[in-house]
Design a protein that fits this description.
CATH architecture of the largest domain: 3-Layer(aba) Sandwich
Largest sheet: 6 strands, mixed
Number of strands: 13
CATH class of the largest domain: Alpha Beta
CATH topology of the largest domain: Rossmann fold
Helix content: 25-40%
Shape: globular
Strand order of the largest sheet: 4-5-13-10-11-12
Structural class: alpha/beta
Oligomer: single chain
Number of domains: 3
Number of helices: 14
Distance between the termini: 64 Å
Radius of gyration: 22 Å
Length: 408
């Protein structure tokens, strides 16, 4: 299994055992590419545990690298009982070890970081990346340094980074400012960058495509939230590799969903523009995708257009409604960014872009407990009574729903 790291802009080729995150040309993102995709069958993976490393033939880490893993991947694929299409499935990435899809990329990137002999790792984050990087760095014996936009990270995510012993640097600015600082730290050789700019992150994140297709075998659409656009880029890379390996005959269409207050790709796509309408001050309740200048925008635009898919945007109100619906109808608790994908699916079905008989997988990227402030802000029936009255009150509630509404 031979692979190299290629710069997408200047074409320079680097070995997989080199510390390449951003090409020295400074212009393009780096990508891990096989010299030749191996031909495989689904039987290749049978008998192995579910998870990222089930697909080791398609993850070309350097020979001799010691795998750093917390058992990531193998997340539930749940059929929605009252979904917007007859065959709607939700891939619940909140079941990963730190509660988000970031763990898929982090197991591979940390494995390579340890192999390369780095001592410290760094990332900019809106929350989930910092949580994941801190956990995997602890596992590998590396020092995690995270750069956060001050006051812009959900408490549940920040508490994870603190628990895992990360050094936290708050910057006055947004995520894009934090990422610029993290890139500079990496260029100075002070720490190894672990954002999705890192090509090894993509190699792990693409395995969500492998799991969805191994279980479903055929999918018409995959819908997912888009922030910095690394995940949709990884998804498309994984799908194309499945096709090249002879594992699938048809590629699904992709629907990338952004929040209206942070929708540079969706707005540009809908007006037919080649480049995003970057947002200097993005705002949305979905903090995980509150990013105005997605680094991987070229890859994301290419992925959606090559797949024959779409970008769409949803309002914060639609996001919160989607979060409530998933929780109270399906029993699945997701963070707002994940709810954006579900809200986007509903919108695309209403618009007639996705048919009600099509097979759809929605990627829910993070757990509801990642953002407890939003989760606990939804209205819910509540009343206070004396303890002696509890039985009588509950008797009345279960027998008379109208009475319950009046009391509340």
């Amino acid at each position: 299994m031979r692979a190299n790291i290629h710069c997408e802009e200047c074409g320079t080729v680097h070995g997989v055992d080199e510390k390449v995150v951003i090409c020295p040309c400074g212009k393009g993102l780096a990508e891990v590419r096989f010299e030749e995709i191996p031909r495989l069958t689904w039987d290749t993976f049978s008998g192995r545990s579910w998870g990222v490393w089930r697909y080791k033939e398609l993850i070309p880490v350097p020979d001799g690298a010691e795998i750093v893993s917390l058992g990531e991947g193998g997340t539930p694929l749940v059929k929605l009982v009252r979904g917007p299409t007859r065959y709607a499935y939700l891939k619940f990435e909140g079941a990963n070890p730190t509660g988000s899809f970031k763990d898929r990329g982090m197991t591979v990137a940390t494995t390579v970081a340890k192999y390369l002999g780095v001592r410290a790792v760094v990332c900019a984050s809106t929350g989930n990346t910092s949580s994941s990087m801190s956990a995997y760095a602890a596992r590998a014996g590396l020092r995690p340094i995270i750069i956060l936009p001050e006051g812009k990270v959900a408490r549940g995510k920040l508490s994870q980074a603190i628990l895992h012993g990360a050094t936290i640097v708050h910057v006055k600015g947004n995520f894009d400012d934090a990422l610029k600082a993290a890139v500079e730290v990496s260029r100075e050789g002070l720490a190894y960058l672990m954002n999705s700019i890192n090509p090894w992150r993509i190699e792990g994140q693409k395995t969500v495509a492998f799991e969805i297709l191994e279980e479903m075998r055929s999918v018409d659409w995959i819908v997912l939230p888009v922030g910095n656009a690394g995940n949709i880029s990884a998804l498309w890379k994984g799908l194309k590799e499945l096709h090249a390996a002879g594992l699938i005959d048809q590629l699904p269409r992709l629907a990338g969903i952004q929040a209206s207050g942070a929708a540079p790709l969706a707005k540009a796509f809908k007006r037919g523009a080649e480049e995003p309408d970057f947002v200097d001050k993005p705002e949305t309740v979905a903090t995980a995708i509150r990013i105005g200048r997605p680094v991987s925008w070229k890859r994301a635009m290419r992925a959606v257009r090559e797949s024959g898919g779409v970008f769409e945007e949803v309002s914060d109100e639609e996001i919160l409604e989607g979060q409530r619906e998933l929780a109270r109808v399906e029993g699945i608790g997701v963070e707002p960014a994940s709810a954006a994908a579900y809200a986007g699916l509903k919108k695309l079905v209403d618009m007639g872009i996705i048919g009600k008989d099509e097979r759809v997988a929605v990627i829910a990227t993070g757990h509801a407990l990642k953002d407890p402030e939003v989760a606990s802000s939804h209205p819910t029936p509540s009343l206070t009574v004396d303890v002696a009255d509890v039985v009588a009150v509950v008797r009345e509630l279960v027998s008379d729903q109208a009475s319950l509404q009046q009391k509340l």
